[in-house]
């Protein structure tokens, strides 16, 4: 028989050892912590110290009987576990030790084990068969404080905006018929215009404050009210207004921008055609200039060449129409022209035909339509002429001579919209997560036979694993999009190609993430999630199309990958011999890392949580994918495969690169941001979120990392365990984390969380 | 310079070699095929033969210059590629060889390369810069024939049923208001009832034909009409009728079953409560027997104890109510009781309160409601008494003494509903796939600059990879569910525990699969997929809840895993020493396989396509997961962790086992089925679908296989390539494959495919 009557000095260690060995918690750095505390514990005799040391060998763990004996000591103790104690486990240990009577001789340093091993009540309370005094949410962190950190300079303005949304105009209700829903959303957009929220991104002289970042945050906040509102708001102020602002010149701004910002002039952004969505350059609508009339004729030539899915089509009185500009018989490529759609009595202009797109999966508050133009004439001045103009003498002029470059410069000015789409999707994900988490903190189902109350579903490990990593990702993406928008709207950066690549990749990754997350939240709420009143259903149907509009995700990822490749090639070409050497040497370094088992199987906690490891893993993946992709394409071309076909053959490789690149970019941005947080307590929390993001990303692509020998089996498993453990560790703070999203209380109308 | 003037005999090989080396197509078995043909080619001189051999070394491939030279020969030839030739590449080669003038001396065996390497026009036509005469769909297979094979004995009945669905009652339209939609669906259900389709699974004396398998197929076919119809049909005839049939006795059958089958008596299946969904055993509604009145009192005790999400609640006049049966003060556990809800004038019965659940994400044609009972009295005879009865003397009697066993026996009779749910979800996936594929065969976007017409999106590799594996999976799951339903409804099998485990696992896996597939199809159709008229949107919102109802997927997978574990344990326990030995020896065999690099890195085509490899991979995974799971739980329990908590700690392991088990089961069933197909041509097609299913499954879980050393890096990459190649190989037949689902033409109303 094992010794079962321990001294008080030993007894105080028993709960720790029980937890450690029930869960195989130990890694090398953790053994060191416990060992140090034992070593410096003045209450222990040498024999006792030796006994404790024998329980610290990972290779020779204590026998089952011993561990089971500990379990019995704990459950027979009658001691209660109080989760709201500062150090619950340490208090529990103290009480256990004093049971033996006599002087308990408590070692005050014991709490360091609790802190350093990151042991949280929800890690162990289910291991003890003792009464637990639970707390649903820890008050160690504050949701409000987290939100302030996240919003930074815009915190106050957004708080006001959040309060403004409590206006009855913005209250949520089921809307099933097109007309009623569209009218309501129109009123909301007009209300926002009147209050100056539409013009945020415009210059001051047109009622704005020149702040695109704040505009994008407002756009995201509107998702908490309704997806249709968000999109109609974006069509009016971002797409229509933005096209006038960015593709037009002063005359257009003076004439239209103020009215647009106030929603007095409603308009459309007519780019997509039935026959041409992703391939904008191939659109068929023509804009032919006639010298005699000094007018431009807009025309829809064929059956599938009408504009489609155009938002505001039933309310708008004007449209920015994208068309092939033909001057003196020559096609100068796609340009944007302002075309009146309706007169002041709201009658369609001659030659304009508009048809309702009808019911959609979601966003039914947005009036999408199809538009045909039959030889519609507009004055020459209506050409948005910043990048290409027709001079009074009837000749075409552009400062950008290369038509290809001109096309991409024009489209580039519209990239802000893509950031907004990603932000909107993210807002939807946050809302769904907040609802699912708050529901899981109320809903109980199943229990241990010894308990009376059923368990909160938030306390199930599978539920934690379902909801916590997406919360961490939401934080990382939020910070990334903020940074991207700042770069994008920084006028001192003139070459926007890099940010365009970044936006393309992140729009795809984030909108997919949002859809998956909302789906996960729907399922996590069971049948309740299926009811419209609980809001997740609408989020699901509204956010769905975010993966398609403003650029189909699959197309965007390929676009991004091509951008990365061309950077890589131009680096190689311009850098010459030195660059080649550099690349070759980094290839060699990669290989060295990859074949070093000390690295590929390093599973120590400190290493796995270290941002340096994560960054290296992401950087390594992007570089390897870029290099191997470039080589594959080169190979094909050398063998005589036409370039267009060579790119087709590497499509899935391109998609992988686009994803890897976004991940690296997002994480790097987040780490830089985290380091800048002044308050240590919250910085630690953000670091933990970053680690969870990174480990989850590696876990999701573990196949690739294993295939390339970057991680070994043991490390792969350890990463999965760490994701599970971090999710559990964050459980006491999960409500604070969703509160940190800052969703106004009056927007969280779902009855399941009230 | 390389030799560029090849003889006719060599020239005829050039297109093959070009394709082989442009794509790195060669594996060992493929080299053997080509080598054999060269060896036996009488048109070749010895020198020519030697030259061709030098182009067959995988380790020393021909130089780029050589390959590029081939490309030039081909593009300068002016020869057209005609895809509708029987052997397009061979005809092309012949024409190329005869260009040189003189006697072309064609080797008639060349077509064997084309056949054996599985080279299809869409593998190579993009590699040639020559004019291609394309065909959109090959007529090698027939969709109708495939469908006949799939439907087997029920083919004719289902064909009739499909035609019946052309009745105007079943035409699709947008339905946005609850009342109108519900009325329409009610009419449809009544129409089906009148025609005898509701009673299919009932005995002949009640209007049926005792055919549950046919019933399930009809259920699936209804998904092609509308999801709400499917579910309301299932509630009325499957759940309500099924509960009377399976839990009731002859008196209930005689009194109700005929009327139920004809939809003259509409009813509900009232099991789920607001407070208790997944945990049925914990429901709170009580059914208390009173001796004095010889009646049972149904009562909703608390705030959250009402029935919820009950289908037919607004139209039904009766409900099978699940409640805790209390006789003489003793709770005998959950039983089912028939409770009238409305009188003949459609007024609610005293004590019954019903509330509309309101708008849902989808299935708005189903009238779901909440039901409260306030001391509602029904006669003793209303107890569905097959497994537990109240005798005339007022005492409780059940042949199954163990309450636990009784509960699971009762629930077990309802497992057929779960198979139907999986079939319905699968029907939704098939419909979405058919629409997405047919759209992709019409829609063009982008092109190579040298072509006038843009490419069909179905010809993009990423699109093929998106849609083809789910088609293969749909075939596998269809066959699996057919087999499951046959086992389930086989009365000679009395112990249904195994089939229950199987159904639990497959319901989860298939409903998740359906949701992912429908989402993929929505995105694959871009903006068009978002319009309700194109049908995918409704499928998405309807099928969503299939992951939750009839058992939450996460809960079901855990249930299945526990079933597998208990089989494993009882096998060990009953088998004694021999079983332990057997297990140990299979463990050792596993290890041997795992460490054998000849196996874990075997990448030859024949091996990768071999069902033996797939089956071993699936079997190995299930066994290892079962064994390690059993050991982990044993460990926890040995250490003193309470069993309930031990299971919580292995939740994600349980989910993994449930999934692995379904995959193995589905594949094994499919292989057995495939082997039974008599016609060789179609058998080969089904084999290819099986291989695609298996390789895609291994690919999706490659992390696990790599972690366990079962496959090495090279094999993992080779599997991914094979999935891509198989998807491309099936491209010419993809329309036949979706036609093989047998969706009636009149149900495919989506305008994008008309």
TrEMBL record, chains A, B:
It comes from Arenibacter antarcticus. SUPFAM superfamilies: Acyl-CoA dehydrogenase C-terminal domain-like (SSF47203), Acyl-CoA dehydrogenase NM domain-like (SSF56645). Residues 412-564 form the Acyl-CoA oxidase C-alpha1 domain. Belongs to the acyl-CoA oxidase family. The keyword rRNA-binding does not apply. Residues 268-376 form the Acyl-CoA oxidase/dehydrogenase middle domain. This is Acyl-CoA dehydrogenase. The keyword Cell membrane does not apply. Residues 612-752 form the Acyl-CoA oxidase C-terminal domain. Pfam families: ACOX, ACOX_C_alpha1, Acyl-CoA_dh_M, Acyl-CoA_dh_N. Its cofactor is FAD. Keywords: FAD, Flavoprotein, Oxidoreductase.
